[in-house]
Write a structure and sequence with these properties.
- By secondary structure, the chain is α+β, with helices and mostly antiparallel strands.
- The chain has one domain.
- It has 1 helix and 4 strands.
- Strands 1-2 form a two-stranded antiparallel sheet. A two-stranded antiparallel ribbon has the order 3-4.
- Strand 1 and strand 2 form a beta hairpin.
- The longest helix has 20 residues.
- The N and C termini lie far apart (about 60 Å).
Length: about 80
């Protein structure tokens, strides 16, 4: 029976072009929003952490949506339905 190899060839699932010390892809001429940022995240309700890699633009988009939603919730918290 064969065992499937990890996606990136290592046990830590680090993409081959990511510098673990910086967590960024080191690609020449790459746009700032296209750089890959990797960090360790622990999902809510879990004790297991995992490495998650996303583009800087994707991280900023999620941040803006979250802030907007929180601001909307706080603004409408005391309004009558």
């Amino acid at each position: 029976m064969g065992v499937a190899a990890p996606a990136f060839g290592g046990d830590d699932q680090t993409p081959p072009d990511v510098d673990p010390a910086e967590g960024l892809v080191a690609a020449a001429g790459e746009q700032p929003d296209e750089r890959i940022v990797c960090r360790i995240e622990r999902p809510i309700g879990s004790k297991l952490s995992r490495r998650v890699c996303r583009t800087a633009a994707s991280i900023e988009e999620v941040r803006e949506i979250t802030v907007s939603g929180l601001r909307n919730t706080q603004t409408n918290a005391f309004k009558e339905p």
